[in-house]
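Worked Example 4.2. Consider the chain below.
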Amino acid sequence: MATILLAVGLVLCVEGLVFALAPLRLEDVLETLRNIPPETRRLIGLGALTLGVTMIWVAKYFGA
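Applying the procedure from the previous section yields the following C-alpha cells:
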C-alpha cells in the first residue's frame, strides 16, 4: 500500500509541475496527441505502463 501511495504522490508532483510551469506547452502537447492515431496512443500508454511497473519493481527489489 505504501508503494501505491508513493507512486501516486510522485505522479501528482510531476503532473502538478507541468501544469504550474508550462501550461501553454501542455496545450501544444495535447494538440499533438490528438493527431496521433488511437492505436498508437494505446501502444504508447502500454509502453509507459510497462516501464513504470518495471521501475517500481526494480526500486522495490533494491530496497526502496
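The chain has one domain: 2-61. Residues 10 and 16 are 10 Å apart (CA to CA). Compare this with Example 4.1 before moving on.
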